[in-house]
Design brief:
321 residues, alpha/beta, Rossmann fold, 2 domains, 7-stranded antiparallel beta sheet, 12 strands, 43% helix, globular
Length: 321
Amino acid sequence: MADDFPYDLALSFLDRDRNIALDLQSKLGAQFKTFVYTSEQARLAGTDGMESLRRVFLEECRLAVVLYRDGWGATKFTSVEERAIKDRCFDGGWDNLLFVVLHENAKPPKWLPKQHIRLSLAEYSIDEAVGAIKRKVQELGAENRRETAKERARRIQKDQELLLAREERLRTEGYNAALEHANLLFDEIERQTESTTAEAPGIKLVLGKARNERVLRSLVASLLIYTEIIMPAGSGIKVAGFSGIVRTSQEYFAVYDKPSELFTRTYYFDLTPVKDWCWTEEGSTNTQSFTSQELAEHLMTMFLELHDEQSTLATERRTRR
């Protein structure tokens, strides 16, 4: 294989992790030739897209970086990328692959050797991941190219233009879009509540409703979800986890034990770098974005983990009596 690669590194990721991929590209692209599919769509449009995509990961990049979470390899694009990465690794070894695991419970694919080096964004910051990728791609022969003053000026101007365009769209369209997507979120939470109740009736899951609130609750845990839709921008979803039973503001049944708040989260309504509406967690070092459907699934998983934790604690308290 030739030493002159069209790309120093290529990023493979699920659509929901575009923010992370584009953040890495912005931090690495000035020094290394970086492939991100969403930034190359115009070039690939005039080719056999899937074959061109496969060729990038099979032979055109020094280093393939996989941003891994469960579900990677099962979508139209990541399945093509996974097959190319496997073919390359099985034929030529594992030096040209770096796995970045995005959440601590993710289980890498069985074909990945257990001893293969991987990073976890649950343990390391995005800047530490950037440093590890730089070291790895330089080990493979990439030159750390210095950004010229003109290139830096163009990049700064482009970033400023994108920021202004994002702020303008949030100002003019954000309020109505946030209302629409908050309703989509609540509809999806209701659908997931119905399917979870049918699948696991023993949890005794109930969905409490009010105008701008939903509460997922069992006998031992509650997850309060409420919207703050603000003009012209700044809308978000507030989430709070509790031990015990929590009511919405429009429910009036008796609760005998005061619930204890355990944690809070905030998900702001925003735009991804490719201008799709999304929800992004405040203060997260992992800049993952969620569609309304993905956020509903994320919150249901959060509630089930909370319920399991509180059920275990309740059992331990009973056994100590």
